[in-house]
Prior knowledge:
The protein is mainly α. The protein has a domain at 1-73: Serine Threonine Protein Phosphatase 5, Tetratricopeptide repeat (Alpha Horseshoe). It has helices spanning 7-11, 13-22, 24-36, 40-52, 60-72, 76-88, 96-108, 112-124, 132-144, 148-160, 168-180, 184-196, 200-213, 216-226, 232-250. Helix 11 (168-180) packs across helix 12 and helix 14 (216-226) runs antiparallel to helix 15. It is globular and about 60 Å long.
Amino acid sequence: MSYQLRREEVLDGDSLKAMLEESPARAAQAILLAAREGVLDAQALLGQILLDGQGIEQDRSLAVRWFEIAARRGHLMARNMLGRCHEHGWGCPADAALAARHYRVAAEAGLDWAMYNVANLFATGRGVAESQAQALALYRRAAESGHAKSMNLLGRYLEEGRHCPQDLYMAREWYRRSAEGGDFRGQFSYAAVLADEGCVDDALGWLRKALEGGNANFLRVSSESLLGALHPQIRGMADAYRLRLSQLTAQ
């Protein structure tokens, strides 16, 4: 099907993003046209839809090329996505050291997702020398910028007192902010704190939210954790997590 697109649709990055939700195929055509017109956000978006196969045939090698184009022009998320491609070998050879370099460029420019991604590399020693201190500092920067996943991990460091003084109050606060920010792992962490405080109904509410958003690996690990809970109602959530896991893995 051929679409007649207004020029303002082709050149308006915000309308392209909204269009992806409503009509991926139509959006893909508009994004392609805008990328060729030199619209920076469209070039980064084209890389993303090529990577995902959203409204367009998946082509991860071509996605890398568009991310490179947008990154060279200063698009921070495109730079971050180049890091993701090199970290995971999407459309290019896997190279954690090169991924780290891309992440660091975007992180130093203030992108919270890049801070989080390079922190993960420091935490695990992939592509860089392992440094929990640097990982913690980056998670903290990203968390303070509003990054929900980093809030949860900062909470974990503070709860366990790893490479920082233990601070259970601030750990709880970061878990709460992560949960309210929509991170399913943060929701699970905050639920655990609430359960320990005896707020079982509130804990169950957050566990249900985490269940709705969690991926297969999270559900697998969390279902085992729930089996060891003190409260019977919370132990019972393990069945719901296993059921959701079976549904995801059957797809």
